[in-house]
Specification:
Blueprint lengths: L13 H16 L5 H10 L7 H9 L7 H8 L4 H8 L2 H4 L2 H20 L6 H15 L7 H7 L7 H26 L4 H10 L5 H4 L6 H13 L11 H17 L9 H20 L20
Length: 302
Amino acid sequence: MTLNTAHGGDTPAPGTVRQLWQLLEPVHAIVYYAPESYEEAGSLGYATDERWPLYFAFRAAPLGAAGPELVTALFYSFNPLMVERYVADAWDTAPPARVLAARAAATDRALRVLLGERVASPDLAEAAGLARRAAEAAVTAGRPLAAANSAQAWPETPHAVLWQAATILREHRGDGHLAALQAHHLDPVESLVLHCAVGAAPAEVFESRQWAPADWSAARIRLASRGLLAEDGIATEAGLALRTSAEKLTDELAAAPWSALTPQELARLAELLLPPVLDIVAAGLIPGQSTLGIGMKYDYQS
């Protein structure tokens, strides 16, 4: 992958930041899909017939025994009723410290399987070191999920270091993304509806957030009243421009940690990440489409 790192000063361009997120996201996301995660979560007593019990427990555990209100606020796009269902009793099943230990064990085991001999390679160690430098440079003021994950002790093995760095950086980006959505006056449902409307993923993908059809319809009406959606539910030119602006701001807000690396190091990290990420994606555990819209391309030059 070739990165265009040119931008003002030492800050990487938004497109570069986006590419690095796209590379690191599968490294982080495997914790919510790997069979090892289901096994570890099941050993704690969580239901494993679907992924949501482990998702909410594993992702929220760095916050401590957070209640549904806090998790709803920080996860943003989920229906509060859904969060209540999975979080209200989560810490009765297992305390956050045990959940974090299970999360670490799951990622360690899963990445060993997925990467095979690559876990002991110099290239993976180099990638982990570069990603860690960026993660440690992340300023977490106003970024609660990034701060909570930054507070966790660093593991020793390169693949585990890479996972933790990927997690800190993606939560840092995610915290900023919520600020960008709010700056563009997009509430949780509207953010999903507009992302769907610009073609980030089919509508059924966004149903995973479990908003009722009435909520979805009401959000479409609100967006249409702002001139952001056409009658057929597709984003208007103004809707695409607004979503592009929100994504660009997200990437700009996520850029600072990457300034810890030189342009050459950023390009090297992208080069090093590609083989292990392809291994992870090739396993077929992570869905090809998600509410994140990882494959979506935005024209930041317009």
